[in-house]
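User: I'm new to structure prediction. If I give you an amino acid sequence, what do you actually give back? Let's try with this one:
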Amino acid sequence: MKTMTCRQLGGACDQVFRAASFEEVAALSKRHGMEMFRRHDEAHLKAMQQMRALLQQPEAMGRWLEDMKKAFEALPEDSRGT
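Assistant: Good question. You get back a string of structure tokens that encode the predicted 3D arrangement of the chain. For your 82 residues, that looks like this:
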């Protein structure tokens, strides 16, 4: 298991996500983002606007996604064991 935060993934807070793969951490982040959207959390809404702007540039989005995957893979395994 590895740990990333909402902020590390382009979000607005230090919510921790623990997962075995980047795909899993991305799903946890997405679920958190949807909850923050429902709560109308201003900081997260601003981060979502920035992400939407990135989505308008497929090459930039692809680079960002690849960078996030590499960052996840470079993280050490959590020392807590599970």
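You can read the tokens as a compact description of the fold. Here is one thing that stands out. The mean pLDDT is 94.
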